[in-house]
Amino acid sequence: MSATRDLVLANLSWPEVRDIAGQVDLVLLPVGSNEQHGPNLAINMDISASYEFCRRATEMAYPRLMVAPPMPWGVSFHHMNFPGTITLSTDTFIQVLLEVVASLREHGFERFLIVNGHGGNIPAMTVATVRVKEEIDPLFIGACSYFSFADKGLDEKHDMTGITGHACEYETSMAMALVPSAVKTDTLAAGEMTDLTYEFRGTLQRYGVTVPYRFDEYTTNGALGDARKATLAYGNDIIDSALKNFVAFTEELLAWSPAEDEDA
C-alpha cells in the first residue's frame, strides 16, 4: 500500500501548484487564534489544531482537498487580560480572509471552506463568507468549526459532564489527539470558574443570548472544566469521528456545487 499523502499549499512549489490545481476541488482555509489556554494548553492550540485537522483531511481525500496556509491570529479580544494573547479586530480578520480567497481564486481555485478552531471567530467568519460571496462570488464559500463534526454522545461515553468550552477536558483531549505538543502535561488544572460561569452563563446558553464578557470574568486561571480528566481515548474518538464526518460532508458539498462544465 502506498504511503498516505497530504496536500499542503505552503509545501509546494509554484509549478507543483499549477500542475495539481485541476485536481483540487476544495481549498480548506484553517483559522484559529494564538490566545491563552490557562495552564493547560499552549497559546497556539486553536490554529495548530485546525491546521492539523485540515491536513489530515487532505490525506484522507487526496488530491481532492488542499489546505491553505493557516491564519495564525483570530478575534480574541475577550482573552486579552491574559498575557500572550494576540487579537485581530473583526474587520481585519474578515479582510484577510477576503484577500486570501481573492488571491487563490486568481490562481484558478473556485471552492473554499473556512475551517475554524476558535469559538470567538464564529461571528466574524460568518460575515466573511457573506463578503466573499458578494464581492468575489466563487463557486462555493462556506465556514465551519472542525469540532462540530464529532459524533454525538461522546461526552457521556467517556463520563465527561463538566462545564466545558475552553482549555477543558474536551479541548485538552482533542489536543492530545491532534497536537500533543500543545498539552502542558505537568500543569494540567481545573478551571477556577466564577459564579458567573456556574449561574448566568448557563441561562445565556439556554436561550442563545450573546454577551461579550471577557474570559477572566468566567475563570480566573483562563480555563473551564477540568483538564485533568482529559484522555487520549476521548480525544481520538472526537477527532476520528469528526474527520470521518467532515470528509463525507465535503463529498456532499461538492455534489451540490458542481462546476459549470459538470452540470447536467
Determine Rg (CA atoms, Å).
19 Å
* SSE run: HEHEHEHEHHHHH
Number of helices: 9
Low-confidence stretches: none
Mean pLDDT: 95
User: What's the count of strands?
Assistant: 4
Question: Structural class, judged by helices and strands?
Answer: alpha/beta
Protein architecture, described:
This protein has helices spanning 14-20, 45-60, 90-106, 122-135, 154-157, 169-178, 195-198, 200-207, 232-255, and strands at 26-31, 65-67, 111-116, 140-145. Helix 2 crosses helix 9, helix 3 (90-106) packs across helix 4 (122-135) and helix 6 (169-178) crosses helix 9. It has a 4-stranded parallel β-sheet with strand order 2-1-3-4. The model has no long low-confidence stretch (mean pLDDT 95). The longest helix is centred in the last third of the chain and has 24 residues, at 232-255. The two termini are 36 Å apart. The protein has 264 residues and is an alpha/beta fold.
List keywords for this structure.
four-stranded parallel beta sheet, 8% strand, alpha/beta, 264 residues
Describe the SSE topology.
Blueprint: H1 14-20, E1 26-31, H2 45-60, E2 65-67, H3 90-106, E3 111-116, H4 122-135, E4 140-145, H5 154-157, H6 169-178, H7 195-198, H8 200-207, H9 232-255
Parallel strand pairs: 1-2, 1-3, 3-4
Helix pairs in contact: 2-9, 3-4, 6-9
